[in-house]
C-alpha cells in the first residue's frame, strides 16, 4: 500500500507521523510551497515539509496542484491511496482519480458542518459546544465527499483555536489509524453528506479579526479565543491597532457606550459591550509585545473613560 500524504500546517503533522510509525509506506509528501514569515519575511517551510524531511521522505511543493506538470509528477509515485489533512488546495479530478483506493481527507469538523478552510476557528467564534474530526472521501467540491468515520470532541469554555488545533490533530491521527485497516478491507461504507445541514467556514479575513463592541461580551470572548494564538482580535485605541489576546466575559451590565473603558486595574481593563462587560487580561498595544494588562497600565496614561472606536486608519 503506497500512500501519498498531502498536508501543510501543524494540524497535519500527527497524521503523517502516525502513518509512518504504523508502518505504512509513504511514497511522497506533498505540501504548500515555502512562504515568507514574520516582519523580516524569512522564507519558511511549512510544518509538514519539516516533518517529512526529518522522516526522510521525498517532498513535492507545487504552487498549484491543478497544474498538469504537478499531476504528472505525482503520478510517478504510483500511489494506491492519497491521504490529505489541511493541504490547502482543492484537488482536481486528475488527482482524485489517480489512486485506485481513492483520496481521503482528515477534516477538522463534524461534517457537513463547517466545510472550508477555517473550521476550527469558526466553530469557536460561533460559540459551538463541540466539534470534531471527519474522515471523508475527497470530491471535486469543497469538503463535499462521502463521510467514512468521525469523532466528536467538546470545546471547553477556555479552549482557544490553538488548544483545539492540538486536540483535533491528535484525535484526527488516531481516527485515521483506526479507520484505514477496515476501510482498505472494504468493511466500511461511506455515507453521503446531508446537504441541507451543510455550513461553511471560509478562511478568515481582516474584518473577522475586528472587534465590534456592540456585540455581547460572550460573543467577543468567543471571537478572541477563536483567533488566538494566530491572528488575534483587534480594536483601535487613539487611532492605533490594539490587539486583545485574552479576556473574560463578566455577568454584569453598565450604562456606558459600547467600547468604553469603565475601569482599569492590575486585574485587567473592563470594557462595556452591547450586552454585558468584558475583562481584558492579555493585550498588545501598537508597537508593543503581547503583555498582561498589569504590565501595560503602569506606563499608560489615564485610560478610564477612553473608548475603543473600532475604526482603523489607513
UniProtKB/TrEMBL annotation:
PROSITE patterns: GART. Keywords: Protein biosynthesis, Transferase. GO terms for molecular function: methionyl-tRNA formyltransferase activity. Residues 1-179 form the Formyl transferase N-terminal domain. Residues 204-300 form the Formyl transferase C-terminal domain. Attaches a formyl group to the free amino group of methionyl-tRNA(fMet). The formyl group appears to play a dual role in the initiator identity of N-formylmethionyl-tRNA by promoting its recognition by IF2 and preventing the misappropriation of this tRNA by the elongation apparatus. This is Methionyl-tRNA formyltransferase.
Amino acid at each position: 500500500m503506497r500512500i501519498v500524504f498531502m498536508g501543510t500546517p501543524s494540524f497535519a503533522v500527527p497524521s503523517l507521523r502516525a502513518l509512518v510509525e504504523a508502518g505504512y509506506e509513504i511514497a511522497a509528501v506533498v505540501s504548500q510551497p515555502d512562504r515568507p514569515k514574520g516582519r523580516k519575511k524569512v522564507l519558511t517551510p511549512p510544518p509538514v515539509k519539516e516533518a517529512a524531511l526529518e522522516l526522510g521522505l521525498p517532498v513535492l511543493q507545487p504552487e498549484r496542484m491543478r497544474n498538469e506538470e504537478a499531476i504528472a509528477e505525482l503520478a510517478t509515485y504510483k500511489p494506491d491511496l492519497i491521504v490529505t489533512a489541511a493541504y490547502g488546495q482543492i484537488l482536481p479530478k486528475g488527482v482524485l482519480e489517480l489512486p485506485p483506493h481513492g483520496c481521503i481527507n482528515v477534516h477538522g469538523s463534524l461534517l457537513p458542518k463547517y466545510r472550508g478552510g477555517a473550521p476550527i476557528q469558526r466553530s469557536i467564534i460561533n460559540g459551538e459546544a463541540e466539534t470534531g474530526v471527519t474522515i471523508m472521501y475527497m470530491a471535486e467540491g469543497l469538503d463535499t465527499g462521502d463521510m467514512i468515520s468521525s469523532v466528536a470532541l467538546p470545546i471547553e469554555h477556555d479552549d482557544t483555536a490553538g488548544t483545539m488545533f492540538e486536540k483535533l490533530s491528535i484525535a484526527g491521527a488516531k481516527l485515521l489509524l483506526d479507520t484505514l485497516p477496515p476501510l482498505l478491507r472494504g468493511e466500511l461504507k461511506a455515507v453521503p453528506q446531508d446537504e441541507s445541514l451543510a455550513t461553511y467556514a471560509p478562511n478568515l479575513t481582516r474584518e473577522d479579526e475586528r472587534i465590534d463592541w456592540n456585540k455581547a461580551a460572550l460573543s467577543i470572548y468567543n471571537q478572541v479565543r477563536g483567533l488566538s494564538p494566530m491572528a488575534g482580535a483587534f480594536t483601535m485605541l487613539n487611532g492605533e491597532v490594539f490587539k486583545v489576546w485574552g479576556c473574560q466575559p463578566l455577568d454584569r451590565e453598565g450604562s456606558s457606550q459600547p467600547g468604553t473603558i469603565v475601569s482599569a486595574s492590575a486585574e485587567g481593563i473592563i470594557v462595556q459591550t452591547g450586552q454585558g462587560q468584558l475583562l481584558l487580561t492579555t493585550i498588545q498595544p501598537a508597537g508593543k509585545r503581547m503583555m498582561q494588562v498589569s504590565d501595560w497600565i503602569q506606563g499608560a496614561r489615564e485610560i478610564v473613560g477612553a473608548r475603543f472606536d473600532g475604526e482603523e486608519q489607513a
